[in-house]
Amino acid sequence: MNIKFEPIKRNTLTVSETAKYLGVSTDLIYLLVREGKIIHFRLGRRILFKKEEIDKWVQSQMVGGLDDEQ
């Protein structure tokens, strides 16, 4: 019998993966977590992030843009 398994696709990020994804330091990620400014969850002592929630958070942080009056 030849069984093929699909690789597991993670949708969570660690602190260091999140920092790299956002292009910031891990210290900043820990600060955002401590201040409750970034969505995360804990699994034991580990702090994890859902990639889709990070993307939504980034979108909510966007400021500025094109002026509608042209």
Structure, briefly:
The chain is of the alpha+beta class. It contains three helices and three strands; from the N terminus they run βααββα.
Features of the shown structure:
3 strands; 70 residues; single chain; 3 helices; three-stranded antiparallel beta sheet; alpha+beta
Description:
By secondary structure, the chain is of the alpha+beta class. The chain is 40% helix and 14% strand. The protein is built from three helices and three strands. It has a three-stranded antiparallel sheet with strand order 1-3-2. β2 and β3 form a beta hairpin. α1 packs across α2. 9% of the residues are buried.
List the helices and strands and how they pair.
Blueprint: E1 12-13, H1 15-22, H2 26-34, E2 41-43, E3 46-50, H3 51-61
Antiparallel strand pairs: 1-3, 2-3
Helix pairs in contact: 1-2
Low-confidence stretches: none
Helix content: 40-55%
Mean pLDDT: 90
What order do the SSEs take from the amino end to the carboxyl end, as H and E? EHHEEH
**Main beta sheet, described?**
3 strands, antiparallel
- What is the count of β-strands? 3
- Trace the largest sheet across and list its strands: 1-3-2
Please give the alpha-carbon distance between the first and last residues: 67 Å
Rg over C-alpha atoms, rounded to the nearest angstrom: 17 Å
Number of helices: 3
